[in-house]
Amino acid sequence: MSDSSSNFKHRVRQIAVTILVLLLAGILIWSIAKTGHFSPPEPVYQGMTLRQWLTAEPHLSVTSHEDIMSYRRSARSCSARSSAGG
Fold first, then answer.
1. Where are the domains of the chain?
2. The pLDDT value given to residue 30
3. Between the CA of residue 78 and those of 31, 51, 75, 81, 84, what are the distances in Å?
4. 53: exposed, middle or buried (C-beta count within 10 Å: 0-12, 13-18, 19+)?
């Protein structure tokens, strides 16, 4: 009877340790992923990242929404050509 109780306690302890290790590993992976260390670097073109190009306003007087959209399309195509090696 004592052997069965000891075996049960060992099994419960083993499961608890396994859960704790998995929980700690999950927290570690989540914190690393949150800081962006797993993310690939963004392409850079003329000193600006892709995200900066897509959100940047053009350095010219804008008269319409279409001017802004045209500027952003050209920035995307330039960045795509740059990241493709061309």
1. 1-39, 41-86
2. 86
3. 34, 13, 5, 5, 10
4. buried
> What's the per-residue H, E or C state across the chain?
CHHHHHHHHHHHHHHHHHHHHHHHHHHHHHHHHHHCCCCCCCCEECCEEHHHHHHCCCCCCCCCHHHHHHHHHHHHHHHHHHHCCC
Paired with 48 in beta bridges are 45
Averaged pLDDT for residues 43-69: 78
Is the model's pLDDT at 24 over the cut of 70? yes
Residue 78 scores a pLDDT above 60: yes
